[in-house]
Amino acid sequence: MKLLPASLTLRLSLAFAGLAVAVFSALGVYLGRAADEHMLELDRHELLGKLELARHAAAGAASAEALRAGLVESLVGHHGLWVAIDGGTSGPLFRWPDEAPAGALPGVAAEVGEAPAAVVAAGRTLRAVAGSVDTGWGETARVVVARDIAHHTRFLDDMRRDFWLAVLAAAFLTVGVGVLIARKGMAPVRSMAQAAGRISAGSLGERLPTRGVPTELRELVAAFNAMLARLEESFIRLSDFSADLAHELRTPLHSLRMQTEVSLSRVRTADEYRDLLASSLEEYDSLARMIGDMLFLAKADHGLVIPQREPVPLLTLARQLAEYYGILAEGRSVSVEGVDIPVPGDRGMLQRALGNLLANAIRHVPEGGWVRVVVAEDCGAARVTVANSGQPIPAGDLPRIFERFVRLQEGGEGSGLGLAITRSIVHAHGGSVEVHSDTEATRFVVGLPRS
Question: DSSP labels for 332-380?
Fold first, then answer.
């Protein structure tokens, strides 16, 4: 069961209203207590003053009649005040005014002292103080002074009622104003949502505006724009890859179709059909290798190429590869030198990566040229350099040499995926690969971590 509405604006508004009610309620409780204490202090001051007045009058009076005469004159005009004086043996000495509450005071205020206390006399709520006094005629009397606090109670009740009504009105007002403020504050978010809604596969180059964005949303906008940049890059790479793939597959498929059509154009001998099938088999093998390479690159792009970890001695591996590819190097010098540095990795994948570099170097070396493989240690890492003599690679082609389906020579051999696979394998091992080319040599440098 949902306890809060789904709207973020309404949630914020209700939170503001709740906070306002809590603050106002605490303020109301504080003000109510302060008003009670203030009223009590006023009553105490007045009651103790009248108690001292009664004591002074009783001490200076020669008789009960003189006491009554003096107090009546002093108490005229004090409305809501009751005074009762009782003698120890003579009973009631004075009542002011002559009403029921005054007569009931001695009984209900028997336990009251000079600290003001609330009592109920004749249906009235009073606040009273009491004390003893020695009269002028030698008798000890008890004086009780009380005042009606009904008007205080009504005042405080009215104040509390008006305050809580104001709190309720403030809560509704806070909700309304909070909704307006929250909607205004959420305007940048709505603008971001509208801008994001306009972005499609054909407009991945669009970005969310960063100008005027609140500080709290800048990180979100930056992250969203970075995500769009990654999507755009991936989409462009996928589009290019699809176009290159279609182009690369079209040639062997067209060749197979033409061979088949030619072979079916007339009846041929068994040897001719055998030659045709052998030619088609070569094309099928080429297609199978290309598809396998593309699947490998697709896995590498998604981080699914996870190499096994075992010590692989690089110099030993390079010598084995040089011996294997030696048949391609007729009339060319191939040398391997350096130190045998073991690195943790997948032997088969590293063999494929370095084999691609070595085969590529041998393929592009002219007659009488040389290929050199050097294994060395560089700042705690292993470095394998595959260099070959010959024409340098144009500087404009170096940045894209590791891309898919790139052939620097028109009609060159291979699928154009070898160097892309090499880069993916090296990156999967946490290493790096780069190329340098000048008039002296072309060098592919592979760096692999030793741990």
Answer: SEEEEEE---EEEE-HHHHHHHHHHHHHHHHHTPPTT-EEEEEEEEETT
